[in-house]
Amino acid sequence: MIGWIIGTVFVIIFLIFWYMFFLAFQTNVHTHSLLIDEWTKDNQFHIFFISDIHRRKLSEKLIQNLIGKVDIVIIGGDLTERGVPLKRTNDNIRMLAKLGNTCYVFGNNDREVGEQNLRSILDTHDVHILENSSVKFEKNNLSVRIVGINDGFEGNVKINEAFQDVKESDIIIFATHAPAYFNNAKKISKPHLLLAGHLHGGQIRFGPFGIYEKGSYREKENSAELISNGYGTTAVPLRLGAKSECHLVTISGRH
Fold first, then answer.
1. How far is the C-alpha of 186 from the C-alpha of 198, rounded, in Å?
2. Nearest-CA neighbor of 230 among 251, 204, 252, 206?
């Protein structure tokens, strides 16, 4: 009887861990719509946001399903980490760059593979490294400005410098690895879309309880804030209650 109970417990534990492992390697694309006052309904910009890839390999199927649907790719940091082969990181960037103009901000783990190694890969694929800087993209007489800051854990954040080229008339997307900088950005400017990852949604949650808040998309007045659970995992390849995710955000006019 005791042996049967112990065996049952081990089977249950195994199934729980298998399920957590399964959740860690799902590919979930969440779609969001942001309506802004400055554009008409005919105007649209499509942003693909992915953060915290860490050790994962991007799915070829994911990329194929997104081709033709994306105007700008934004990578929200932790593209890689210590021990990840540079070839894997290169392959991931190569696939993301197929989707369109690509921007990147540093995460707290990225420099562990060697900063120059990572910069070389990003430069090879013409990725815009937003390091307290911004870049402007245009499409059909529409334009958006992507503002990005350095990682606050391993780099120097100069948020005023990041916004120095921003004009009041710009449609602004603010990208940072850590969402703690959202309020800093809003003190300087009025971003329409704020993007971050880093927290993994707590990665392993028990109901409403987790180390960090679960990822969310929250619409505000003429703006939205997106904090992603992230695509990969760190420490252990397990998730519970905070599924892996990436995001397709469509910005369009309200009127």
1. 19
2. 204
Helix extents (H) in 148-225: 159-162, 182-188
Structural contact between residues 110 and 234, judged by C-beta atoms closer than 8 angstroms: no
Distance CA 46, CA 43 (A): 10
Structural element, H or E, at residue 78: none
Question: Which backbone phi and psi does 45 adopt, to 5 degrees?
Answer: -130, 135
| Nearest by Cα to 175 from 32, 89, 50 | 50
pLDDT 10s digits, 81-128: 999 999 999 999 999 999 999 999 999 999 999 999 999 999 999 999
**255 CB-near residues (< 8 Å, 6+ apart):** 37, 40, 41
Beta bridge partners of 105: none
pLDDT (tens digit, 9 = 90+) per residue, 141-167? Answer: 889 999 999 999 888 999 999 999 999
Q: How many CA atoms lie within 13 A of 119 on its CB side?
A: 6
Q: Which of 60, 77, 53 is nearest to 178 (CA)?
A: 77
Paired tokens of 33: 């719509």
Half-sphere exposure of 164 (CA within 13 A, CB side): 9
195-205 residue pLDDT tens: 999 999 999 99
DSSP state of 57: P
- Residue 118 CA to residue 237 CA, distance in Å, equals 23
For the chain, list the domains and their CATH numbers. Answer: 2-253 (3.60.21.10)
SS3 assignment, position 50: strand
pLDDT of residue 50: 98
Where do we find the tokens 């008339």?
A: 169
Closest CA to 34 of 42, 22, 44, 24: 44
